[in-house]
Amino acid sequence: MRIVLLGAPGSGKGTQSQRLIDMYGVPQVSTGDLLRAAVAAGTTMGLRAKQTMDAGKLVDDETVLGIIRERLAAPDANSGFILDGFPRTIVQADGLNMLLESIGKPLQAVVLMQVDPQQLLRRLTGRRTCRGCGRVFNVYTAAPSVPPPCGGQCVTPDLFQRPDDSEATIGKRLEVYEAQTQPLAEYYRGRGLLHAVDAEGDIDGVTTRLIAALRTAGAA
Ligand code: AMP
């Protein structure tokens, strides 16, 4: 499975990736997670990226392509990958094409996760992450108490809101998505790779539609 999950912030890319990992055993490669890890580790690159991320803007293409190059060279990506939050610009998409062509492993499908903008706002403002296990919840759609936090894995759940999920930053992120990332739908449609999926409604229903699209594309 070599796929990209394309969609606005809050469209469920991370949630659905988690399910695909469990079902197909391929790693999720999220540039957002990798950048947040660099910020937490206090690396030079992380410190440089933090301000950009907190402002809801995109980290420069060169940095992000470097992260991806390194991550896709890891042994676990040999069996495939689910790209989540990457590419986000045409330059990144071109860079990815070149990288995958050079290793003879082209993309099989790009799935566009479609969600109404009002829904996106609700999902993003309600999103909370457990500091202990990294699982993501939503105070509106998947309340931390039902199911229990971390599926009961963390003894004392410590939920926090990502700094860039503040109402002030969300507007900017959605604007950036529309201007810089949305054009990728046409880019991949033109290459015969795009599959649009209705990503609203319950999580299981979205997973069913996603897998059907991946099977149609020969990616699952
Ligand atoms: P995400 O977790 O995917 O919503 O990403 C959080 C933030 O990390 C974004 O708002 C950007 O600042 C940065 N980021 C993540 N992925 C990329 C990317 N592919 N290109 C540029 N910036 C990114």
Concise summary:
This protein is an alpha/beta fold. The protein has helices at residues 13-24, 31-41, 44-54, 61-72, 90-102, 117-126, 167-181, 183-189, 203-216, and strands at 2-6, 28-30, 81-84, 109-114, 127-130, 136-138, 159-160, 194-198.
Report, as a whole number of angstroms, the end-to-end distance. 6 Å
Largest sheet: 5 strands, parallel
**What would you call the structural class?**
alpha/beta
Which geometry do the CA atoms define? globular
Cofactors, ions, other ligands = adenosine monophosphate
Strand content: 5-15%
Strand order of the largest sheet: 2-3-1-4-8
Order of secondary-structure elements: EHEHHHEHEHEEEHHEH
- For the secondary structure, the number of strands is 8
Question: Can you give the helix content as a percent range?
Answer: 40-55%
Radius of gyration: 17 Å
Which stretches of 5+ consecutive residues score pLDDT under 50?
144-148
Q: What is the mean predicted local confidence, pLDDT?
A: 91
Can you count the helices?
Answer: 9
